[in-house]
Amino acid sequence: MKKRIDDMTAQDKDAFMLEFRRSIEKQGLSWPGMKAKIQNDIDATFDDEKFLKMSPDFMIDAAYARKEFKEKPELVDYLLWTLKFTTHSDVVEW
Fold this sequence. Notes:
Blueprint: E1 2-4, H1 10-26, H2 31-45, H3 48-52, H4 56-68, H5 75-87, E2 91-93
Antiparallel strand pairs: 1-2
């Protein structure tokens, strides 16, 4: 399926997450481990103390995330934003 991020329903986001998980597992990676790492990145981005201790390279991306989201986003919303940020497209396929 292909859709603009802003037009995605809760069901679309669930389907996207399922496909994302499958793609991680196809690569032989642990989904629980990857999910925990991504969640740690989100938590650090939206924690003022941890944010200030980030490496400069990650801090730049984290600053963009903090600008985009007024409060800590859900995992799926962060992943969708990351795709939009890196691809410069607001359309996602799953």
